[in-house]
Each structure stands twice: as C-alpha cells, then as structure tokens.
Amino acid sequence: MSYYFWINLLSISVPFLVGFDKRLQFYKNWKYLFPAILATMAVFIPWDIMKTDLAVWGFNPVHLQGIYLINLPIEEWFFFIAIPYACLFTYHSFEYLIKKDLLGKYAKTITLVIITVLVVVAAFNPDRWYTFITFIFTAVFLTFHLFVIKADYLGRFYVMYFATLVPFFIVNGALTGMFTAEPVVWYDDTRNLGIRLGTIPIEDSVYGLLMLLMNTTIYEWLRSRSNKPKTVK
Q1: Using alpha carbons only, what angle is made at residue 114 by residues 183 and 153, rounded to the nearest 5 degrees?
Q2: Is the pLDDT of residue 232 over 60?
Q3: Which of 102, 212, 104 is nearest to 152 (CA)?
Q4: Left, alpha or beta for 2 (phi > 0: left; psi -120 to 50: alpha)?
Q5: Mean pLDDT, range 126-133, rounded to an integer
Q6: Rounded distance between C-alpha atoms, residue 8 and residue 70, angstroms
Q7: Mean pLDDT of 162-185
Q8: Contacts for 122 with CB less than 8 Å, ≥ 6 apart
Q9: Core-most of 45, 140, 155, 229, by most CB within 10 Å?
C-alpha cells in the first residue's frame, strides 16, 4: 500500500474500532454519517478535480498506488471518507463525554470574527485562487449557518474543530512533506498566500473547517429529521 493510503488508514482505524464501544456506539449513527460524507464529497471532489487540472495543487506519484478515478488518485477519494469519519467520531465522542456546550455562548462571536477575517483576506488576494475561493466559500457557508440555519451546535462543532487541529497538523504535515523528502501533495504557492504552518499552507486549515462543517451540518440535519416525533393522522 502507498504512503498516502497508510495515512488515511491510520486516521480512520482507531475511530472506526472505538466506534463499536458499548458506551459510544458510534456505528449506530452511520445512517447519518455516510450520507453526510457522500453529499460533502459531491461538492469537494469536483472542486478537487478542477484545482488539480489547473495545477493549483497536485499529487506526487512516488507516494501513490497509481490508481486514478476521474483524474484523482484513489487515496484522495479515501481522504474525504477517512478524515470526516475520524472528526465526526470525535464530535460524537465529545457530545457523549462533555455534557456542557463549552463554546455555545461564544459561537456567534467566533463565527463573525472568522467571517470578517476571511472576507478581508480574500478581498486583498483575488488573484490567489486557492486563498480567494476557499475563504469566500467558507465565509458564505458560515454566514448561511449563522443567519439562516441558526444551528445550536456550532459551539460543539468549534470544540471538535479546535481539538482536531493537533491531529490535523500531524496528518496534513505527513501529506505536505513534514516527514518525507518529497510531499504527497504539492502546492503552487503563487495561488495561495505562501504562508506555511510548518509545511502546511494556511489555507488548508480553512479548507478543513469548511469540509468538516459541511459534513457536520448534513449529519445533524439528517439526525434531527430522524429524531422528529411523527404526527398521528
């Protein structure tokens, strides 16, 4: 198996196994989880294909199996399953272990600050495609969340997101050359800010926020529909 495949496998293996714990029973939420993952992939896979075709980023064949599906390595498809699975397992676990919504009362402020920063940075960098598109899409989705969805779980989402930044740096660092002579994923720095957190473009943290929030939003929507009491006619 390829280096990239192993990164994905290690990312999902522990959450997958622990998800059968009799207390957490995360497997019972698969009926919400996998539709959320597939729906999010329907957005991110075309985005990924387009950016790869435009050479905004690309993949080093040295670290791949050599199997491609619609111009993307099979490992990249696995990435969009493994990482959301691991993070939503974390979200579910925190919901079980931490009864108090620690950031609930700060969620609106956090969201407004993030939106403002993203819009300002995007406005000053319209020619840097990765930065501009990622920041604008994320700002729009957060705005939609704040004023249309008005979800009560944003605080819990932020706790999960901030907590998973540590494994994010490890996994994304492994993909961007932190532990290898050549990265798995390379970036054209003329299309981003050129600011790296170690070996990781800063845009990846925003890209991850958007991807995980989209997964969480669909997951919670499906779960809320399932939990609605049925009216008797």
Answers
A1: 100
A2: no
A3: 104
A4: beta
A5: 96
A6: 19
A7: 95
A8: 131, 132, 135, 136, 139
A9: 155
Tokens 């957190």, residue?
197
Q: Across residues 178-196, what is the average pLDDT?
A: 96
DSSP codes, the chain:
--HHHHHHHHHHHHHHHHTT-TTT-GGGGHHHHHHHHHHHHHHHHHHHHHHHHTTSEEE-GGGS-S-EETTEEHHHHHHHHHHHHHHHHHHHHHHHH--S-TTGGGHHHHHHHHHHHHHHHHHT-TT-HHHHHHHHHHHHHHHHIIIII--S-HHHHHHHHHHTHHHHHHHHHHHTTSSSSS-SEEE-GGGS---EETTEETHHHHHHHHHHHHHHHHHHHHHHHHHSPPPP-
pLDDT, one tens digit per residue, over 58-79 is 999 999 999 999 999 999 999 9
Confidence band (pLDDT; 50, 70, 90) for 233?
A: very low
Is 90 exceeded by the pLDDT of residue 231? no
pLDDT of the residue at 1: 84
Round the CA-based radius of gyration of the chain to a whole number and report it: 18
42 vs 49: CA distance, rounded Å: 11
Calculate mean pLDDT across residues 93-101. 93
